[in-house]
Amino acid sequence: MNITMYSPDKEGMGYWIAEIDEPTNIDPKDLYYIKLKQHIDIDEWCEETYGPSDYWGESAISGWKRMRNKYYFVNENDLLMFKLRWS
Question: 19-58 burial, b for 16+ CB within 10 Å, e for fewer?
Fold first, then answer.
């Protein structure tokens, strides 16, 4: 799996971002890739490692969120741990 990382100073909008490969042949109704096995596995690992996902528009609590194929982190260490696990 390819992972592209962005810092808050670049395109991160205040977050450290890990962007994984965009899936192909997805269900057009699954806009957020909720049903994809790859994302389910990653989301479960993130919950076990960082705690529950934060909601959009709220202050960071556990420090991570996902939007489609991008994972957003509050700090760089969490991004680096993500990269080490999923590269």
Answer: bbeeeeeeeeeeeebeebeebeebbeebeeebeebbeeee
The 8-class DSSP code of residue 64 comes to: E
Reading the block at residue 43, the tokens are 């989301």
CA-based nearest residue to 51, from 39, 40, 60: 60
Question: Has this prediction a pTM greater than 0.70?
Answer: yes
- Would you list the DSSP string of 10-55? TTSTTSEEEEEPPPSS--TT-TT-TT-HHHHHHHHHHHHHH-SPPP
Chain segment 45-69, per-residue pLDDT in tens: 999 999 888 876 666 667 898 888 8
Beta bridge partners of 17: 6, 72
